[in-house]
Design goal:
This protein is of the alpha/beta class. Helices cover about 40% and strands about 15% of the residues.
Length: about 150
């Protein structure tokens, strides 16, 4: 298993550091940023494979950050995962329109973080993330708020 670079963006430093500890424990290289501007600088330097982004942050929201990332030369490749405590129905569709690949409600279960990381970073899905045969089934399971369904796949 190759080590992958994971950027974690959350204005809650404790949440970001907790996720970073878990990402490191499962064998990947985490970097944390606590705001959108820092995340953009870190992303350009790190060239991450996966980016977890909190949707509700001051100054630059996660939605705006995802759109900005997708406009960067380095921002086309990473898998973008929205993480939020905001369970509003419009947030899902808005997150996809903003460029996110997945949407999770906080708190994220560590087994889901592990499964997503393993399936998307360690498998073939990274290179085919927009291929309906690879990424879409996982996306639909997550957007249906039935994360337990991941156990079946």
């Amino acid at each position: 298993m190759a080590t992958k670079r994971v950027l974690i963006v959350d204005d809650n430093a404790d949440a970001a550091e907790s996720m970073a500890m878990w990402i490191r424990q499962i064998g990947h290289e985490p970097v944390t940023a606590y705001d959108g501007a820092t995340a953009l600088l870190a992303g350009a330097r790190l060239l991450p494979d996966l980016i977890f982004i909190d949707l509700i942050m001051p100054m630059l929201s996660g939605f705006e950050l995802a759109q900005t990332i997708r406009q960067q030369p380095w921002g086309k490749k990473p898998l973008l995962v929205a993480i939020t405590g905001w369970a509003h129905p419009d947030a899902r569709s808005r997150s996809i329109k903003s460029g996110f690949d997945h949407y999770f409600i906080k708190p994220m279960a560590l087994d889901l973080v592990t499964r997503l990381t393993m399936q998307q970073l360690d498998g073939a899905a990274t290179s085919n993330k927009r291929d309906p045969g690879v990424a879409e089934p996982l996306l639909h399971l997550l957007l249906d708020d039935e994360p337990r369904l991941l156990e079946d796949h």
